[in-house]
Amino acid sequence: MSPQGGQYLNKAAVFSSLGAARLSQLALGCSVVAMVSHSAGYSGGSYGVFCMAVWCACFGMTTVVFFLDATRLHACLPVSWDNLTVAFAALATLMYVTASVVYPVYFVRAECPYGGCEVRNFRIAVTVCSIAGSLAYGAEVILSRAKPGRVVGYMATVSGLLKVVQGFVACIIFGALANGTEYSRHVATIYCVVVYAVCFAMTTVVVILTVSGRTGCLKLPFDRFVVVYTLLAVLLYLSASVVWPVFCFDRKYGSPERPSSCPRGRCPWDSKVVVAVFSFVNLALYVADLVYSQRIRFVTQQPRV
């Protein structure tokens, strides 16, 4: 046996601040999944399934990330490891925060159900662990983000992290659009949907190119590509943020007030409001992205042969 064999294991994967954050993610994720499966439950329609899917997916991916980092096997993968891990941590933070809000809203009640307080207490514990998991993933993002004088991957910069948030917000918009927004009634609202789809697709392309280490494949310099695309996204979202409210809430095309007969939870008017609000949110994110993109010094990564 080679005396150098121990070097194949990465001690920093455990004995470091980043390692501690990932171990906390694993412990909290395992606790949440175990408690939900044991007694807390998640039966209650799509909301419960969504929360359970978030916790299971994040726990599984974190396990893979920790194992590959501890064994150094990530070096065998055709990806930019630093960009991949920080992008996943940022997305997991957003997903955990969402689940930490959705689960107690639909499953936690102040009074005890007929079976006693055990189920309620488990659900409260699940919520607490989920919030703690959000903090653990957020800690990884903070530990991995770019700092002055430190060379890091693009996804660890403010601009890169904003790309993850932009994609997440776009998914919220798509979810609202699928909930009966009646966007096909007007050409203008169809245009808005096309804007959301195009910007989401381009943001996804930027993230994939960065995570895969293929930014050098672009004929246009990556820094210029990012700035040009972000400027285009700002202009498109600005137009959609104006057009959508006009064609949804103006009396000529829609209703400025919520219909009294609209069912709660499945009201097209509510979904239209969600789309309008998050359109402005993403517009602000793209503007911030454009500002920060001017301050980044890019290091182009060449694709692996």
From TrEMBL:
Entry's transmembrane regions: 12-35, 47-68, 80-102, 122-139, 151-176, 188-213, 225-247, 273-292
UniProtKB keywords: Membrane, Repeat, Transmembrane, Transmembrane helix
Annotated Gene Ontology cellular component terms: membrane
InterPro entries linked to this entry: Marvel, MYADM-like
Localization in the cell: Membrane
Record domain MARVEL: where: 13-149, 154-298
Domain of life the protein comes from: Eukaryota
Main subcellular localisation: membrane
UniProt topology in membrane: Multi-pass membrane protein
Family: Belongs to the MAL family.
Name recorded for this polypeptide: Myeloid-associated differentiation marker-like protein 2
Species of origin: Oncorhynchus tshawytscha (Chinook salmon)
Gene name in the database record: MYADML2
